[in-house]
Structure to design on (146 residues):
């Protein structure tokens, strides 16, 4: 029997597409998948869409010295500092980020997940390389609370 973490996302989408459900959400320890159909007049529906998810870090930040903290990756995926290839980065060293401000995007199973700051902070160092795979718990940013 497959576990939630071993499900094939394409198979999950095809099952949803064949169903009469208008919304579906599946959460595991590693990811959340939300599928939702758009309804257009008189009950007609269009193909399902996978909604981008906003992921917040669950574990408390790791302390690194008295003034800085490390923000880690909540999932396995590809790390992006920009929302699109031609867009400016969300943050650079020295950027002050407000609470719930976006730090980066992590792509997992073709879903784009935005990592938000849980508190106001200033980026001291970017520890991950853009467009590279990151692991669960891998340090991404060194920050100072403000």
């Amino acid at each position: 029997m497959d576990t939630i973490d071993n499900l094939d996302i394409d198979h999950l989408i095809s099952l949803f597409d064949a169903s009469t459900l208008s919304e579906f959400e599946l959460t595991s320890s590693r990811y959340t998948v939300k599928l939702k159909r758009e309804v257009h007049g008189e009950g007609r529906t269009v193909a399902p869409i996978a909604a981008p998810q906003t992921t917040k870090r669950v574990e408390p930040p790791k302390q690194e010295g008295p003034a800085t903290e490390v923000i880690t990756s909540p999932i396995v995926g590809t790390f992006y500092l920009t929302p699109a290839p031609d867009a400016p980065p969300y943050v650079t060293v020295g950027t002050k980020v407000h609470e719930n401000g976006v730090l980066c995007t992590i792509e997992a199973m073709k879903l784009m997940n935005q990592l938000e700051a849980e508190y106001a902070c200033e980026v001291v160092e970017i520890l991950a390389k853009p467009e590279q795979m990151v692991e669960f718990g891998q340090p991404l940013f060194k920050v100072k609370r403000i």
In short: The longest helix spans residues 9-18.
